[in-house]
Design brief:
This protein is α+β, with helices and mostly antiparallel strands. Helices cover about 35% and strands about 25% of the residues. Helix 5 packs antiparallel against helix 7, helix 7 packs across helix 11 and helix 9 runs antiparallel to helix 10.
Length: about 450
């Protein structure tokens, strides 16, 4: 084979002949020489984006710290330290044992107009950080450490620009969102009475108009064990459970013009002990994503389960809430509907609620979870816009309603009525004669 570049061939051959130690030494020497060369700044950013992007570096640090729900202590401590280093006032709030929320604000005024918030816990298993030229991979990269990083950068930039100050905005990063929402529920004790809350979740950079509610349940079937050769002597718990689950799969639940259909998912089934034994126990665990009325949805499911003797349903205490409507009155954003649950209903208060963030829920919780770097940068711009709108709402002219003129009732006097009647009589007399004459002539 003819090699077209003898210089590269010679260098490659030399490297192959060298020992591992010598090869490493030579490569280090080449790296230092390359590092000493002068490149345009835009080329340096392409070659080493993390060194030149506070956003990507913050995002990377958050992903690299495992924070599966229940074990968020390390990431909370790291984040609190980071925010202190950026001159924010930081408080931590205990959530059970060895877990904490992180609450930060500017200066000494913790009561602010606006709150921006997301969660720092993730689902299992931990997936290490890695990146490509265009994307970042790893557990939490999309759900929801992308939102956390972009929110913090948005607040930092606005503060550095002089657009916000003390009393304008606070940041809250909670634990426990992925299971029970205990972090956000604990945060209600902060009780500063925000006027606007901006929640961060992967919405593909769209403002959510609402999201479905959720309720989880367990269906329990109880029968009677018997020898499988004499099934009539027992009651098959599996068979009864199957009947109920078939009914649930075909159940018509309340729908919503805004959020679409309610859906049931049976996520786990177990029952029986052996192939030659009529099973006396069986159960299924499921959930319903609620688009319509919560009470009516629960009633219909209870009715379907109760239609088969020996089968009952037990509802979990949490999560258990109906559909959530959100604010989406800021111009310049596409809108979307979310079928997943969030911490929005767990934070009490009469405030405006915005749900927005980078990344897609379609890859969250999967083994290929990732986010585009460009979406992280776009999210910073989006969060800055939402914060600005929360502090300086756009004045929109009130809707103009054209009123129809009301009919005017005129009450005529007796003289006018009499005169009008006389005129009508005269006109009738004038028309009657010619018509009669015309008839006579025709006859």
């Amino acid at each position: 084979m003819k090699l077209c570049n003898p210089t590269i061939t010679t260098t490659t051959t030399t490297l192959l002949l060298l020992s591992i130690t010598a090869r490493a030494s030579l490569l280090d020497s080449l790296k230092s020489k390359v590092a000493s060369l002068s490149f345009p700044s835009f080329l340096r950013k392409i070659a080493s984006p993390l060194d030149n992007s506070a956003l990507l570096l913050l995002h990377k640090n958050l992903i690299e710290i495992p924070s599966i729900t229940g074990d968020e202590k390390a990431v909370a401590e790291w984040l609190a330290t980071y925010l202190v280093s950026r001159n924010f006032t930081v408080e931590t709030q205990a959530v059970g044992e060895n877990r904490e929320n992180v609450f930060a604000y500017i200066g000494s005024k913790r009561e602010t107009n606006t709150l921006i918030t997301s969660h720092i816990d993730v689902v299992p298993p931990f997936i290490p950080y890695r990146e490509t030229p265009t994307a970042v991979y790893g557990r939490g990269s999309s759900d929801a450490k992308g939102s956390v990083a972009a929110q913090i950068m948005a607040v930092e930039e606005l503060w550095n620009e002089g657009a916000i100050g003390e009393g304008d905005i606070a940041m809250l990063y909670v634990v426990g969102e992925e299971i029970t929402g205990d972090g956000m529920k604990t945060a209600n004790a902060l009780n500063p009475g925000w006027k606007t809350v901006i929640f961060g979740e992967p919405t593909e950079l769209k403002l959510a108009v609402g999201h479905k509610g959720i309720a989880e349940f367990e269906v329990i079937s109880e029968g009677r064990a018997a020898h499988s050769g004499y099934p009539h002597l027992g009651i098959n718990a599996n068979s009864n459970l199957i009947k109920v689950l078939y009914g649930l799969d075909n159940l018509q639940l309340p729908v919503s013009s805004l959020l679409g259909n309610s859906t049931i998912n049976i996520g786990q089934i177990e029952g029986g002990v052996a192939a030659n034994v009529v099973p006396d126990k069986a159960k299924a665990i499921g959930s319903v994503r609620i688009a319509g009325d919560l009470k009516e949805t629960v009633r219909l499911i209870n009715e379907a389960v109760g239609s088969v003797e020996g089968v009952r349903i037990v509802w979990e205490e949490r999560p258990h809430y109906g559909p959530v409507e959100l604010d989406y009155d800021v111009e310049g954003f596409e809108t979307t509907v979310c079928s997943y649950g969030t911490d929005v209903p767990n934070l009490y208060g009469d405030h405006k609620k915005y749900l927005y963030g980078p990344g897609s829920i379609l890859v969250a919780h999967g083994d290929n979870e990732h986010i585009l770097k460009s979406d992280l940068y776009k999210a910073v711009i989006g969060y800055k816009k939402l914060i600005h709108e929360s502090l300086h709402p756009t004045r929109r002219p009130p809707a103009i309603i054209e009123e129809q003129p009301k009919p005017v009732k005129v009450e005529a006097s007796e003289e006018v009525v009499s005169s009008a009647a006389t005129i009508v009589s005269e006109k009738e007399a004038e028309t009657e004669t010619p018509v009669a004459e015309a008839v006579d002539e025709e006859l």
